[in-house]
From TrEMBL:
Database matches in Gene3D superfamilies: 1.10.150.130, Intergrase catalytic core (1.10.443.10)
Protein name: Tyr recombinase domain-containing protein
Predominant location: cytoplasm
Residues in Tyr recombinase domain copies: 92-271
Originating species: Candidatus Sulfotelmatobacter kueseliae
Gene Ontology molecular function: any one: DNA binding
Name of a matching Pfam family: Phage_integrase
Length: 301
């Protein structure tokens, strides 16, 4: 597990703990498909041990990986995951914010979150990546931003796919970000809490976004901005390469400069996306410190 991301390690440990609790002290060679199926049946049946179909499937996927290693290392010779009957998982439709809903959210927010939510809606970047941005990641001249790190808990790490991603920004959003970039140290976090600390991905969702969504009667969280962005790209008939680059579903070209990576299609799409959100009022305070506030009183860690 040391080769997995920290967040993946957490889920791995949870799933392994569940298998250990269910199987007890049975030796590996004595675990059969029937034994595993009995556990799955227990988790699928009404009662205190019942788990969702998604959870059960995730646990079985982890068991498959563990068993493959055990077989490769010679601890077992048989397969226990073949011919298992798993509960049906009907994937629920994910929440997706419309343009109108994004405007409502931005209008209800305070700085720096107005700009944070606009940036998420226009680019579709993940919440940890927002918190990992530094001032120097924004290039006002090129109207571009580089995503090259993500915050997970208290740590900064590489983005999910391990690669930098480059985004063309709309002229409107670039102008708004100017407030957070000019006359600041490039190594500082782009967005700060009122306490002057780098935003925490869990805290700013829990303390800033969730109350707004509750007030507006909207379902979803940060990922709904991402799904909304994908829908907008589809609506704009953006080239598939542009969609993949912006959503991080394909490796970006990291060896070229902005002017090569961000081509005309990227610029056109960014301008169109910016046009959706450009009606948001700036109302930015006079003093710049990354928090969008003149005061430095804390409301967030």
């Amino acid at each position: 597990m040391i080769h997995h991301e920290g967040s993946t390690q957490d889920s791995d440990k949870s799933e392994i703990k569940a298998w250990v609790a269910a199987l007890g002290a049975i030796r590996l060679r004595d675990i059969s498909t029937e034994v595993v199926q009995d556990v799955i049946t227990l988790w699928s049946s009404p009662g205190k041990d019942k788990r969702s179909a998604k959870t059960i499937r995730n646990r079985v996927a982890t068991l498959r990986l563990l068993w493959a290693s055990a077989k490769a290392w010679g601890y077992v010779t048989h397969d226990v995951c073949d011919n298992l009957v798993l509960p049906t998982w009907n994937r629920e439709e994910q929440p997706s914010f419309t343009v109108a809903q994004v405007k409502q959210i931005i209008d209800a927010a305070n700085e720096p979150y107005k700009t944070v939510f606009w940036l998420v809606a226009e680019t579709g970047i993940r919440r940890g990546e927002i918190c990992g941005l530094n001032v120097g990641d924004v290039d006002l001249n090129e109207q571009a931003i580089t995503v090259q790190r993500s915050r997970w808990k208290s740590k900064l790490k590489r983005p999910k796919n391990g690669k930098k991603r480059f985004f063309a920004l709309s002229p409107q959003l670039t102008e708004r970000l100017r407030f957070y970039v000019e006359d600041r140290n490039p190594e500082e976090p782009l967005f700060l809490s009122r306490e002057g600390r780098r935003l925490h991905p869990d805290n700013f969702i829990k303390r800033q976004l969730k109350p707004i969504l509750k007030k507006l009667g909207l379902d979803g969280a940060a990922h709904a901005f991402r799904h909304g962005n994908a829908s907008l790209l589809d609506h704009l008939a953006a080239p598939m390469k542009v969609r993949q680059d912006r959503l991080g579903h394909a490796d970006p070209r990291t060896t070229m400069g902005y002017t090569h990576v961000i081509g005309d299609d990227h610029r056109k799409v960014a301008e169109q996306l910016g046009g959706f959100f450009a009606q948001v009022r700036l109302n930015l305070p006079k003093y710049k410190n990354g928090s969008g506030e003149e005061s430095s009183q804390a409301d967030e860690v």
